[in-house]
Amino acid sequence: MSKLMTSLALAAAVALSACSTTSPDVVQRGDAQRMAQVQDATVLNVRPVVVDGTQSGIGGVAGGVTGAIAGSTVGGRRDGQVAGVLGAVAGAVIGNAIERSATREDALEIIVQLRNGERRSIIQAKGQESFNSGDPVVLVTTGGKTRVTRAPAVQPAAAPASNG
Question: Per the database record, which ranges form the Glycine zipper 2TM domain (predicted)?
Fold first, then answer.
């Protein structure tokens, strides 16, 4: 029975880890094909932070059900009921901890200065890009969420030909 519980806990952790991300490399379906506001900025400071995991209750419920089923198989009818209740409580606590751990993310706090002198702080999961003080970046805001990405190289506009 412990192999079953281990398998279920592992499956729950894997499923929960795919639930949410703040990664700048992942775009939510609702943000695709939407116009976003883009602002030029310069990186002032970057520091590593951790985005705490969620506790939606899904992990607790899954763990509680698993613990109750496993506990109810212990001993006779009365012992099984007591073990089932204890298993449900222990499973809920463990399931909640698994959910919180599986949804934690290593992230960056990026402090930038906009061209007008205003400063902003954005926290996003570590993505493919790295940032250093002085880097030119763009802030891309869609649906109330902002991500930081490297500024693309801009080619100067060609001068119009003169008819002289």
Answer: 58-99
Half-sphere exposure (Cβ direction) of 18: Cα atoms closer than 13 Å = 5
Order of strands across the sheet with 119-125? 119-125, 105-114, 37-51, 136-142, 145-150
- Sign of the alpha-carbon dihedral angle for 132, 134, 137, 139: positive
Q: At what angle do helices 2-17 and 58-72 cross, to 10 degrees?
A: 170
Distance CA 162, CA 148 (A): 40
57 membership: H or E segment, kind and range = none
Q: Rounded CA gap, 77 and 58, in Å? A: 28
Angle CA(44)–CA(49)–CA(50) in degrees, nearest 5? 155
Q: What is the mean pLDDT of residues 121-149?
A: 91
pTM passes above 0.90? no
- Contact by Cβ (8 Å): 112, 120: yes
Residues 6+ apart with CB under 8 A from 111: 43, 44, 45, 46, 119, 120, 121
Q: How many Å apart are CA 100 and CA 103, to the nearest integer? A: 5
